[in-house]
Amino acid sequence: MSVLFLSRSARPRWLTPPLIVGAVLILFWLVATVAAPWMSAHAPLDMVGRRLQPPSWDHLLGTDALGRDVLSRTLHGARHSIPIAVTVVAFAVAIGASLGAVAGFVGGFVDTVIMRMVDVTLSFPPMLLAMAVAASLGPGLENAAIAMVIVWWPVYARLMRAQVLEVREREHVEAAIASGATQGRVLGKHVLPLCWTPVLISATMDLGQVILLAASLSFIGLGATPPTPEWGSMISDGASQFYSWWVALGPGLAILTIVLGFNFIGDGLHDYFDPRSR
Amino acid sequence: MSASPLFEVRDLRVAFGRNGTYAEAVRGISLHVDPGEVLGIVGESGSGKSVGMLAALGLQPEGARVTGSVRFDGRELVGLPRRELRKLRGSRIAMIFQDPLSSLNPVMTVGEQIIEAVRLHNPDMSRHAAADRARDLLALVAIPQPDRRLAQYPHEFSGGMRQRVMIAMAVANDPDLLIADEPTTALDVTVQAQIMEVLAELQARLKLGLILITHDLGVLAGHADRVAVVYAGQVVEQAGVDDLFARPGHPYTRGLIASIPDMTVQNDRLFSIDGTPPALGQLPAGCAFHPRCIAAGEICRREAPSMREEGGHAAACHFAFAPSETIA
Amino acid sequence: MTRYILRRLIAMPFLVLGIVTLAFLLTSVTKGDPLTAIVSDRQMNNPEVVAAAKARWGLDRSLPERYVIYVGNLLSGDMGTSFITRRPVAQDVLYRLPATMELVVAAMIVGATIGISLGVLAAYFRNTAIDHGARLFALFGSSIPVFWLGLALLYVFSVQWGILPGPGRLDARATAPPMVTGFMTIDTLFAGDFRLFLDALWHLLLPAFVLGWAVAGTISRLVRANMVEVLSREFILTARAKGAGEFRVVIRHALRNTLVPTLTVIGYSFAYLLTGAVLTETIFSWPGMGSYAVEAARGLDFPAIIGVTIVGGIVFLFTNLLTDVAYVVANPRVRLG
């Protein structure tokens, strides 16, 4: 954290405090994803203490209704939430960006069909649609993940299509078309390489929101199923043990800090790219 | 000249702070305006003429430090509480600005804006009476169909008409002093003369003290009584308008006069002074003008000149009013 | 611009049809057998019920035929029968919609009030502690999971300190007034019971804040960015030169110029509010569409969850349309152009 206190001149200009704080928070949870078993004192499913113990030196965040260590479970939660979020975003980008690129590049009827699908999907409040899809597919993390991909892909389809439409007009692309390159070659070689960056940046920033959505689904019982130490379902446990406030504290702070990390970075990037609003 | 001027600025300084160090944009301007007099202030953009006049009314940008003395009608304005300053602004001292489009609020009708100007200083006046006043004001600046015009938004007006609105708004409360900051610069050439005419007529009719800030000395020729020439945050020459044109004492003034476009002579290339004014906080040693001066001597590099006066004509140049004047 | 609105209006029925189609597809993917989406597990053994459902929804026919029947049923307001409440879904949803709307409107008021005030303050006191504080408030708002925030605030304010009421729309001992609008705050006034009105308002406070915080954050960031820009414009100097006080300069001259983007972001925040309402209602035992949807999803009550999704989508579509109309109305240049 000491970078934060460096004088302005000793720090690169892009390295603003929001970026540093965000990076530290995300880094912590990335480490937890890998190293949770070594970072925590107990196994997440072991009943290691008395039930519903308030925080103490033995159990820093207390124990839950089954006597499991909340801190250990919270750290292990990263191993579920982060990989799920990454998978969901990866699939959403793969589907959304491909469809968006095709829509933008081919145009005409294909474009209309794809974009109407996008419009309709975006006509739903995201949470309601995710719930309906997840419920229809049946409970479970995989189905929740599929539901989230269905809710999320249109975002990247729109973004990618806008990118492709913009890049397609550039001179070097028109030159490639004029020189007789095939459609696929023009798209793959000349257009797509210039379109990825904004899509990937936006996808990375969306990870926080996807973690929130996944936790929300788990909270209402449509995602992870017990005894998985997933943050949303842990908070759900906490809600049923309302007076043992510590049961929900750990997972709540976990979601808060990791989403905050992504939001800090998004905010810092925004400041950097839009100095007008400083 | 009367005993006490309407508006008197003495050694006004405006400094902008950056990391604890201050750089002066206005470095001790002194000037005065008598009641009903027209003072022209001329200088390039960035010379500090606008910043100085705004600061005199307490309208300096945030973080600026203002020192010196500004007296209006015998009252000191520097250090006056904001409330008191606010009461003066728009009632006894009014301003108009360069670009009438950006100076008018785009989401308020012209009527709303004029009525606001009236009622801010006459809180007891009814809306209806203020609307009547607004209508009269539009008529005063010769805007036809005032009733219809009051309900329109600024973007429905032409540039010249917008500036008329600004003038109407400025004189809404019969001010004693009007500060016009480049009032014609943003307008089409054909409209510029009309706006100057409106200003001159109102000045005479309302016996306004008028400060005309401009970068174009030519504008002042027919309209100002006296002229102050500002360079790098200081007044470098001050004189009656005829005297100034006839006998400019400062090489900068001579440059400005030479760069007035002459309508009678077909001239392809307009004269312009070489170089650019010094950036904020990067003043050369000696006379601030010497790097651009065609007549600079050894002393100009070492010593800043002080004001020399000769029969109401003052200039800050080491060689001012020198008998052996040979500079073109 | 009016042409744009017209185009949006024309697109509406198609989008609604799209929503319905997607909902229909959902019923057909349900565990492979659409019957499970119409008849609850317990009723599956009842051949009469199964036969009746098959006939009504045309389950023995082809997919396109079923689609036509589905749309026809929807048009007549038939979204099937809830497995849990045993009542028609349409009736349930209509009964619960007002509670959600009341919560969402309250959250929008809370969010807009806090957001606009903070945005204005942050812009005016740019790069001061106030500005940084407002930024933190906004970032936290969009990072805190509402369901956890609701729990935490309920615990602190209601259990620990006892200064705010617990879950629900009214005190548990109170009898609800007759339902007129479905807005508890309005119905209590219709019933002429001012104390009950205060009680309803009191109960609305915490959930509205929980739901409105994130929106407040988003709005404050947008208002700040716009205010910073507007405050540097020349007409602000004109207003000051006219003798206007700072409050008038900021509110009447600057804020009014940010009205259009502000209205737009408030309108679009509806999506977030509907999403957040699902979870907020669950925490605060709020008898709205959100808690209905959650109960339905938990109980695999397919007709109910799909019905709520359709209604939610349609409500969402209409608010977005309203936002666009408001945008046109609030913008004198667009309106006249």
Q: What would you note in describing this structure?
A:
- The complex is a heterotrimer of chains A (278), B (328) and C (337).
- Chain A is mostly helical and 278 residues long.
- Chain A is built from ten helices and no strands.
- Chain A has a single domain (15-42, 64-277), classed as Orthogonal Bundle (MetI-like fold), CATH 1.10.3720.10.
- In chain A, helix 3 packs across helix 5.
- Chain A starts with 16 loop residues before the first helix and ends in a 5-residue tail after the last helix.
- In chain A, 49% of the residues are buried.
- In chain B, helix 4 (110-121) packs parallel to helix 7 (159-170) and helix 5 (127-140) crosses helix 7 (159-170).
- Chain B has an eight-stranded mixed beta sheet with strand order 6-7-8-3-9-10-12-11, with helices on both faces. Chain B has a four-stranded antiparallel beta sheet with strand order 2-1-4-5, covered by helices on one side.
- Chain B is α/β, with parallel strands linked by helices and 328 residues long.
- The longest helix of chain C has 38 residues, at 194-231.
- The N and C termini of chain C lie close together (8 Å).
- Chains A and C meet through helix 3, helix 4, helix 8, helix 9 and helix 10 of A and helix 1, helix 5, helix 6, helix 8 and helix 11 of C.
- Chain C: Residues 97-327 form the ABC transmembrane type-1 domain.
- Chain C: One of its GO terms (cellular component) is plasma membrane.
- Chain C: It is found in: Cell membrane.
